[in-house]
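Possible regression after last week's pipeline update?

I re-ran a chain I had predicted before the update to compare outputs. Posting the input and the new output here so someone can diff against the archived version. Not blocking, just want to make sure nothing changed silently.
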Amino acid sequence: MIFVGIDPGKKGAIGFIFPWTQRVTVRPMPILPAGVLNGKRRGRDEYDLTDIRTILRGLEHSADYDISPRGIFVTVEKSQPMPPTVKGGTVANFNRGVCRGWEWMLVALQISYQLVAPVTWQRQMHAGTPGADTKQRSLIAAKRLFPEVSLKRTERSRKDDDGCADAILLADFGRRTYEAPAEENEKMKSQIAPKSFRGEGPCPRCGRNHVWFRPGTSDWYC
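New output (post-update):
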């Protein structure tokens, strides 16, 4: 299984975790920059939808996909509408609505996914990190969990990017979410099923002295 985390904003990123090869990578959100006329920006940056689709489809042709149990699981941060009085107003809310387009693309590509509210994944992934600023806590958590991964947005960047940190943490949150049920089932089985036991001496079944054995069931064998 390949786990993908998506911080869906235009300043967000896409993180990838390949458990079978223990590889973790992240890349900035593919964007088509606004045009420039007479030294001034005209219009707004837009998502490069074709590049995003190519990235997601390309996972199925990667070496990691071929050697792992086939499948991709994507975790997308759920965008929350804000009051018009908040900074950004209606334009910001429009951009948050555009972010919901990830669902449409993932369904069209037949990729499994989940939407997670920021407070939900941050509660788990930020556990034990200091501070009240969620951006700073994401950077701290990502550096602790994945110290080998560069969080810089580009090669020229001097500072680590919180969008890249969020994307990796979302991918890891998805991994934990996906793997937790299987681990919990194994734990329950070990607690419920009797443990195998071998003994010598008075047999619990027949009372004679010999080597006796109880497998992982309620029956005794002698």
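Follow-up from reviewer: compared with the archived run. Confidence is low (pLDDT under 50) at residues 191-196, 216-221. Marking as no regression found.
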